[in-house]
Amino acid sequence: MSVPEHSVAADVIDELAAPDLEWVRLVRRYPIASLLLAAVGGFYLGRHKGSDVVDSVARFAAETLEEGVNELLGDQVL
Questions:
Q1: How far is 44 from 35, CA to CA, in rounded Å?
Q2: Tens of pLDDT along 17-63?
Q3: Which of 8, 27, 40, 41 is the most buried (most CB within 10 A)?
Q4: Are 10 and 4 within 8 A, CB to CB?
Q5: Could you give the CA distance from residue 66 to residue 10 in angstroms, rounded to a whole number?
């Protein structure tokens, strides 16, 4: 399975990680450690910043839906 070149997850990781970090290579080489690190990070975020994360995801989903509707209808709805 390959990682899409322009996925949202890849964009976020590229934004947060150091420019010289080859995270795709590290994930492929150490998949179990990567999953454990992601699980611990997700648990921490959920416990301490859960409501902020839900708010951000909801805002992102609403903006994406709005863009899709605007694209479908051809003009600005909102």
A1: 14
A2: 777 878 788 889 999 999 999 899 888 888 888 888 888 888 989 98
A3: 27
A4: yes
A5: 23
HSE-CB of 17 using CA atoms within 13 angstroms: 13
**Residue 1: what pLDDT?**
44
As given in the structure block, the two tokens for residue 45 are 């975020």
Domain ranges of the chain: 8-73
Rg over CA atoms, the chain: 17
12 or 68, which is more confident: 68
Average pLDDT estimate for 1-7: 56
Q: What are phi and psi of 36, to 5 degrees?
A: -65, -45
Q: 61 near 73, Cβ under 8 Å?
A: no
Q: Are 37 and 45 spatial neighbours (Cβ–Cβ below 8 Å)?
A: no
